[in-house]
């Protein structure tokens, strides 16, 4: 290849390279989106809290100080029992014998006291006329006091024996429902250790749940104005997602916040006439909002989370200022303004309660703003957009 040919090729290549550098990239077409018009509305929603059903009164049935064989089980498993109803009997023979012996010893002590009383009365009479030795008189009085003490001791032994005998028969301490018996006939039980069964009240029932310490003041107001609060303020969602038919009332707020979790326990009370609520049942407490002012509700799919912050894209029919240069490599820049077109403007927002597929917006946008609800993956702050579909209004997400 001669020198002229090589020179021509170099010139053509440089010309092509220069023309490529001068060629402007094709502009991205507007992204088609759908809009939603923000409009404040009255909403009803529920704050939900995992909860556990508890009995207002529950005790384990344990023999107190006696031990022996179970000789009778007198309440059916899972049945309703009444205060004072006989539930179990423990072998009484040893305790009956001890009681009978204590009674016999008491009679002996009482007879001895009668004898010592008679002797003392006689010596008092004789001493009055100086007809008996002073020592004999003193011994008679001491013997009488000893006999009285022995009688008192025998009476206490009788009481103890009678108590042990009574403990062999175990009665229901209050009205409630008894569980499945942990022992059967012939089981040996040990006083203070063996749990025979558990009994708990069943109407009304308590429902306990934890709330964040930031919400404590709200629940304190609920408690203070308990009578003024609506009946449907507290409702209960059962494990099968059905609603419990009776509303609850706030009963107790625990005395202290757990410093490890920053939560505090709140207790509600629900009537339970049909015994639908069982101890240990996992439910969801629903606390209805009492805010009556209109609030802004937007579709949840329009919300974008970035680094723990939340944003919405608002559609604006506006011009975007861009920086351009006159010539390649020129240091001087010139501002150029495009004609007004639809752009996506990113707005930082503060969110409130989630209501199904929608979310309450507390701040960051205002009524009348048109937010983008789809195509969010293809846009960024300042992106060109086109209205690809019909606009949606607040009625489409209105919550009851």
The gross shape turns out to be elongated
* CATH-level-4 superfamily name of the largest domain: Efflux pump adaptor protein, beta barrel domain
Number of domains: 3
Order of helices and strands: HEEEEEEEEHHEEEEEHEEEEEEEEEEEEE
The spatial strand order of the largest sheet comes to 3-18-24-23-20-19
Biggest sheet details: 6 strands, antiparallel
Structural class computed from helices and strand pairing: alpha+beta
| Average pLDDT level | 82
Q: Class of the largest domain in CATH?
A: Mainly Beta
Topology-level CATH name of the largest domain? Elongation Factor Tu (Ef-tu), domain 3
Number of helices: 4
Number of strands: 26
Share of helical residues = 10-25%
CATH architecture of the largest domain: Beta Barrel
What is the radius of gyration computed over CA atoms, rounded to a whole number of angstroms? Answer: 44 Å
> What amount of the residues lies in strands?
25-35%
Contiguous runs where pLDDT drops below 50 for at least 5 residues: 330-336, 395-400
Q: In whole angstroms, how far apart are the ends?
A: 85 Å
Can you put this structure into words, describing what you see?
The chain has 3 domains: 26-43 and 293-397, conserved putative lor/sdh protein from methanococcus maripaludis s2 fold (Beta Barrel), CATH 2.40.420; 46-90 and 171-288, Elongation Factor Tu (Ef-tu), domain 3, CATH 2.40.30; 92-167, Helix Hairpins (Orthogonal Bundle). It has helices at residues 3-22, 93-128, 134-167, 216-224; strands at residues 31-33, 35-37, 40-41, 46-55, 58-61, 68-73, 80-81, 86-90, 169-171, 176-178, 188-189, 197-200, 205-212, 234-237, 249-253, 263-270, 282-288, 295-299, 304-306, 309-318, 321-325, 333-337, 341-355, 358-363, 370-372, 385-387. The chain starts with a helix and ends in a 13-residue tail after the last strand. The chain has a 6-stranded antiparallel β-sheet with strand order 3-18-24-23-20-19, with no helix packed on it. It has a 6-stranded antiparallel β-sheet with strand order 14-17-4-13-16-15, covered by helices on one side. The protein has a 4-stranded antiparallel β-sheet with strand order 5-12-10-7, with no helix packed on it. With 400 residues, the protein is of the alpha+beta class.
């Amino acid at each position: 290849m001669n020198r002229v040919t090589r020179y021509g090729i170099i010139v053509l290549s440089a010309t092509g390279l220069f023309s490529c550098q001068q060629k402007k990239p094709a502009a991205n077409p507007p992204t088609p989106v759908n809009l939603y018009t923000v409009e404040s509305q009255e909403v009803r929603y529920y704050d939900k809290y995992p909860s556990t059903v508890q009995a207002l009164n529950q005790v384990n049935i344990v023999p107190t100080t006696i031990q022996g064989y179970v000789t009778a089980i007198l309440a059916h498993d899972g049945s309703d029992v009444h205060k004072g109803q006989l539930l179990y009997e423990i072998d009484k023979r040893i305790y009956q014998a001890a009681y009978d012996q204590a009674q016999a010893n008491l009679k002996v002590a009482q007879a001895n006291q009668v004898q010592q009383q008679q002797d003392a009365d006689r010596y008092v009479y004789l001493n009055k006329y100086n007809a008996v030795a002073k020592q004999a008189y003193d011994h008679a009085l001491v013997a009488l006091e000893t006999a009285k003490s022995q009688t008192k001791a025998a009476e206490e032994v009788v009481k103890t024996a009678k108590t042990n005998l009574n403990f062999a028969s175990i009665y229901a301490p209050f009205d409630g429902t008894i569980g499945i018996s942990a022992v059967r006939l012939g089981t040996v039980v040990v006083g203070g250790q063996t749990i025979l069964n558990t009994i708990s009240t069943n109407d009304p029932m308590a429902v306990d749940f934890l709330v964040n310490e930031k919400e404590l003041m709200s629940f304190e107001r609920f408690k203070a104005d308990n009578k003024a609060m609506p009946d449907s303020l507290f409702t209960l969602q059962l494990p099968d997602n059905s609603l419990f038919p009776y509303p609850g009332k706030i009963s107790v707020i625990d005395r202290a916040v757990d410093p490890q979790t920053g939560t505090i326990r709140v207790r509600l009370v629900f009537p339970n006439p049909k015994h639908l609520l069982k101890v240990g049942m996992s439910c969801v407490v629903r606390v209805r909002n009492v805010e009556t002012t209109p609030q802004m509700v937007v579709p949840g799919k329009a919300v974008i989370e970035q680094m723990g912050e939340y944003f919405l894209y608002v559609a604006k029919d506006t011009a975007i200022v861009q920086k351009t240069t006159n010539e390649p490599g020129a240091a001087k820049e010139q501002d150029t303004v495009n004609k007004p077109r639809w752009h996506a403007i990113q707005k930082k927002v503060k969110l409130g309660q989630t209501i199904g597929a929608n979310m309450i917006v507390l701040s960051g946008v205002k009524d009348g703003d048109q937010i983008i609800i789809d195509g969010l993956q293809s846009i960024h702050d300042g992106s060109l957009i086109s209205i690809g579909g019909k606009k949606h209004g607040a009625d489409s997400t209105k919550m009851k």
